Amino acid sequence: MIDETWKIPQATTRRLPLYYRFLQNFANANKTRISSSELSEAMKIDAATIRRDFSHFGALGRKGYGYDVQYLLDFFRKTLDQDEVTDVALIGVGSLGTAFLKYNFHKNHNTRIVIAFDPRTPKEGMINSGIPVYHSDQMTEKIKEQGIELAILTVPADVAQYVTNDLVDVGIKGILNFSPVRLSAPDSVRVHTIDLSVELQTLVYFMKNDVKQSQL
């Protein structure tokens, strides 16, 4: 688990799961040690950034030797709590929510969706991709019953804040928000918002400006 007293920069923290994923790829390819340059080439991240990120955790490598792949894997597995699976509730089973249900997070990650809720679900519930789905009226009861602290939100914008309020009241500590609104929540609740339309607009901007720069 990441010790907050280390004051790791947020940008570095966001890259840790990526480091872990690419280190798994190196290990699967029977690579025993790597350099920051090799990791940089694979991840398309500047080598200096990688070295700076790693420096926040002490001496992870040796000058002239590089990094031991298995050591880094073990270190980041422990740092990211990869050995402890976190149960997740999915709120909203529309097109995006259904895609999440079909994707087996727990095969490659330390999270798994164990329950889902949607207002269109029959009162008796149903099974979707092996995961129980209940009517939204049962959300607070079921989440509290199972002690779930992490939720994925894929609901319409006009109800997102109301759902968030209910999730906060029932003890949710983290929300991954795919609704196109900024949610209000207490400081004790971590909210990460992923607005797909904004991400696409940003991508288009960079694409067009890359073209302009190449024409100069």
Automatic annotation (TrEMBL):
<dbReference type="Pfam" id="PF02629">
    <property type="entry name" value="CoA_binding"/>
</dbReference>
<keyword id="KW-0520">NAD</keyword>
<dbReference type="GO" id="GO:0003700">
    <property type="term" value="F:DNA-binding transcription factor activity"/>
</dbReference>
<dbReference type="GO" id="GO:0045892">
    <property type="term" value="P:negative regulation of DNA-templated transcription"/>
</dbReference>
<feature type="domain" description="CoA-binding">
    <location>
        <begin position="81"/>
        <end position="182"/>
    </location>
</feature>
<keyword id="KW-0678">Repressor</keyword>
<feature type="DNA-binding region" description="H-T-H motif">
    <location>
        <begin position="18"/>
        <end position="57"/>
    </location>
</feature>
<feature type="binding site">
    <location>
        <begin position="92"/>
        <end position="97"/>
    </location>
    <ligand>
        <name>NAD(+)</name>
    </ligand>
</feature>
<keyword id="KW-0805">Transcription regulation</keyword>
<keyword id="KW-0963">Cytoplasm</keyword>
<keyword id="KW-0238">DNA-binding</keyword>
<dbReference type="InterPro" id="IPR009718">
    <property type="entry name" value="Rex_DNA-bd_C_dom"/>
</dbReference>
<protein>
    <recommendedName>
        <fullName>Redox-sensing transcriptional repressor Rex</fullName>
    </recommendedName>
</protein>
<dbReference type="InterPro" id="IPR003781">
    <property type="entry name" value="CoA-bd"/>
</dbReference>
<dbReference type="GO" id="GO:0051775">
    <property type="term" value="P:response to redox state"/>
</dbReference>
<keyword id="KW-0804">Transcription</keyword>
<dbReference type="Pfam" id="PF06971">
    <property type="entry name" value="Put_DNA-bind_N"/>
</dbReference>
<comment type="subunit">
    <text>Homodimer.</text>
</comment>
<dbReference type="InterPro" id="IPR058203">
    <property type="entry name" value="Rex_bacilli-type"/>
</dbReference>
<dbReference type="GO" id="GO:0005737">
    <property type="term" value="C:cytoplasm"/>
</dbReference>
<dbReference type="GO" id="GO:0003677">
    <property type="term" value="F:DNA binding"/>
</dbReference>
<dbReference type="InterPro" id="IPR036390">
    <property type="entry name" value="WH_DNA-bd_sf"/>
</dbReference>
<dbReference type="InterPro" id="IPR036291">
    <property type="entry name" value="NAD(P)-bd_dom_sf"/>
</dbReference>
<comment type="function">
    <text>Modulates transcription in response to changes in cellular NADH/NAD(+) redox state.</text>
</comment>
<dbReference type="InterPro" id="IPR036388">
    <property type="entry name" value="WH-like_DNA-bd_sf"/>
</dbReference>
<comment type="similarity">
    <text>Belongs to the transcriptional regulatory Rex family.</text>
</comment>
<dbReference type="InterPro" id="IPR022876">
    <property type="entry name" value="Tscrpt_rep_Rex"/>
</dbReference>
